[in-house]
């Protein structure tokens, strides 16, 4: 008998050993097993240990007992043929399309390093306050939250989100239009599954967020890249080229990753297109709360004639990504179908997290946390600009931005030496311990190249160290576009 493995009882080891021998055919079907005393002695275990293992094998059908004649390996348990392996089952076409998104979009699975984008400040999150709010939930309410809940979301959270959106983003909606989901990525997946059929055409920004494209391509739709200029997505050219498009996904407040704001004229053009064509517009307001100037641009959904707009929000940037809570503001007739799809997907978000977040918003803690971040992030942005200018001896001068969590250094046309020019330097930076994201990673048909510098989630010392590690590489950078 093999020596006892850590934390695995000897009787369980013996059971697994005997079962494995039966399944492999070492103990042939129909063969008689030795009497338990002799068998236990030969294996070097106690008889009680063997009796426990034999009882379990009999209960599962591997062994049969004949009165007065001992125990036998059950008949009909033929061993699998050696050297022959049945082919693995094939994914469906839709399943394969979803699996293939890994080649187009690979979410980071390691701890954030400067200058990785999309990482908010998490060290300053008020964890103690959050825990205190959780402890203050009434025991009867806690029991109710432990049951299955409305897939559309916890009613107090939906009310808090609706009130917050009106004050902070100018979005007037009823709580009954708010669907709570597990972040913006699930929101995009639900939208693609419920509003689109395989083969439908969808307009996306180019450059744009690959997680959006992944959610769409996984549902078998046709992604149509639309150029982004200084006013945002060029809807007029897109409508002329792809007149059958049924949906457009935009980041109008702070276009990802270029950072421009969609002009009012373009916003109205986009809404007119949706009304005229019976199409949908998805507004991904991923970091709209982080505007640092005296006047904040309100959401596209705040405008008139937005009956065909779905507003997607997330707490991943506002609070932290581990919370896994976001929401969709839907036209009222879509709420029930989306709630049904949410239930099929994963029933509902955790009730206790929803309840604490509702209190966090209603009691003013969200506003206070955001105000602290709106003071912190511009300071970190300024430090990043100075640190890179110093490390590059003045060659790299990033332009400041009045919004967002990252800055862009874009290469001019003369500096674009090849389609992977920015990717090459990014790989060199990663070898030096710095995550420098290439702009080309977000482009489809666009030739735009450059690098993105995330700063929000890193203190000044970390930003300085990262800039110093980049110093030998910064001589390759040219003046911005």
Q: What does this protein structure show overall?
A:
By secondary structure, this protein is of the alpha/beta class. 40% of the residues lie in helices and 12% in strands. It is built from 17 helices and 13 strands. It starts with 9 loop residues before the first helix and ends in an 11-residue tail after the last helix.
How many beta strands in the DSSP annotation?
Answer: 13
Strand content: 5-15%
Domain count: 3
The outline comes out as elongated
Strand order of the largest sheet: 3-10-9-8-7-4-5-6
The computed structural class is alpha/beta
By CATH, the superfamily of the largest domain comes out as Type I PLP-dependent aspartate aminotransferase-like (Major domain)
Specify the CATH architecture of the largest domain: 3-Layer(aba) Sandwich
Poorly predicted runs of 5 or more residues: none
Count of individual helical segments: 17
Mean pLDDT: 89
Helix content: 25-40%
Q: Determine the CATH topology of the largest domain.
A: Aspartate Aminotransferase, domain 2
Which properties best describe this structure?
481 residues; alpha/beta; Arc Repressor Mutant, subunit A; Aspartate Aminotransferase, domain 2; Aspartate Aminotransferase, domain 1; eight-stranded mixed β-sheet; three-stranded antiparallel β-sheet; 17 helices; 40% helix
SSE diagram, text form:
Blueprint: H1 10-24, H2 36-43, H3 47-59, E1 63-66, E2 70-73, H4 93-99, H5 101-104, H6 127-135, H7 139-145, H8 155-168, E3 178-181, H9 183-195, E4 201-206, H10 210-217, E5 222-229, E6 232-233, H11 235-241, E7 247-250, H12 264-277, E8 280-284, E9 309-314, E10 326-329, H13 335-346, H14 351-362, H15 365-391, E11 406-410, H16 421-431, E12 437-438, E13 450-454, H17 460-470
Parallel strand pairs: 4-5, 4-7, 7-8, 8-9
Antiparallel strand pairs: 1-2, 3-10, 5-6, 9-10, 11-13, 12-13
Helix pairs in contact: 1-3, 2-3, 8-14, 9-10, 15-17
């Amino acid at each position: 008998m093999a020596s006892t493995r850590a934390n695995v009882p000897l009787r369980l080891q013996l059971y697994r050993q005997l079962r494995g021998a039966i399944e492999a055919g070492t103990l042939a079907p129909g063969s008689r097993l030795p009497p338990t005393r002799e068998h236990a002695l030969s294996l070097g275990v106690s008889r009680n240990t063997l009796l426990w293992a034999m009882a379990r094998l009999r209960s599962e059908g591997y062994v049969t007992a004949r009165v007065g004649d001992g125990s036998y390996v059950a008949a009909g348990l033929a061993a699998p043929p050696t050297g022959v392996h049945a082919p693995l089952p094939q994914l469906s076409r839709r399943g394969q399309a979803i699996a293939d998104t890994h080649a187009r979009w690979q979410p980071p699975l390691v701890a954030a390093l400067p200058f990785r984008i999309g990482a908010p400040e998490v060290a300053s999150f008020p964890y103690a306050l959050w825990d205190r709010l959780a402890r203050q939930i009434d025991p009867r309410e806690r029991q109710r939250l432990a049951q299955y809940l409305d897939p559309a979301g916890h009613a107090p959270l939906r009310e808090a989100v609706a009130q917050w959106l009106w004050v902070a983003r100018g979005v007037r909606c009823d709580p009954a239009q708010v669907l709570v989901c597990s972040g913006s990525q699930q929101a995009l997946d639900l939208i693609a599954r419920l509003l689109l059929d395989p083969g439908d055409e969808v307009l996306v920004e180019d450059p744009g967020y690959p997680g959006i494209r992944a959610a769409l391509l996984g549902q078998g739709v046709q992604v149509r890249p639309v150029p982004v200029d200084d006013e945002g997505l060029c809807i007029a050219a897109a409508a002329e080229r792809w007149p059958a498009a049924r949906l457009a996904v935009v980041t109008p407040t702070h276009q990802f990753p270029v950072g421009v704001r969609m002009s009012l004229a373009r916003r109205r053009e986009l809404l007119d297109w949706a009304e005229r064509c019976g199409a949908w517009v998805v507004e991904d307001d991923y970091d709209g709360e982080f505007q640092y100037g005296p006047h904040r641009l309100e959401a596209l959904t705040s405008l008139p004639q937005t009956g065909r707009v779905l507003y997607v929000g997330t707490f991943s940037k506002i609070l932290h990504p581990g919370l896994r809570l976001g929401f969709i503001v839907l036209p009222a007739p879509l709420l029930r179908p989306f709630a049904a799809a949410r239930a099929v997907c994963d029933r509902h978000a955790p009730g206790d997290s929803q309840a604490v977040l509702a209190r966090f918003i209603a009691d003013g803690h969200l506003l206070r946390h955001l105000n602290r971040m709106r003071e912190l992030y511009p300071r970190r942005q300024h430090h990043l600009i100075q640190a890179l200018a110093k490390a590059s001896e003045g060659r790299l001068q990033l332009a400041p931005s009045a919004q967002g969590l990252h800055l862009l250094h874009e290469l001019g046309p003369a500096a674009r030496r090849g389609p992977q020019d920015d990717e090459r330097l990014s790989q060199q930076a990663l070898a030096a311990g710095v995550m420098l994201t290439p702009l080309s990673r977000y482009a489809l048909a666009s030739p735009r190249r450059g690098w993105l510098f995330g700063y929000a989630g890193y203190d000044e010392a970390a930003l300085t160290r990262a800039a110093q590690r980049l110093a030998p590489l910064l001589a390759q950078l040219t003046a911005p576009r």
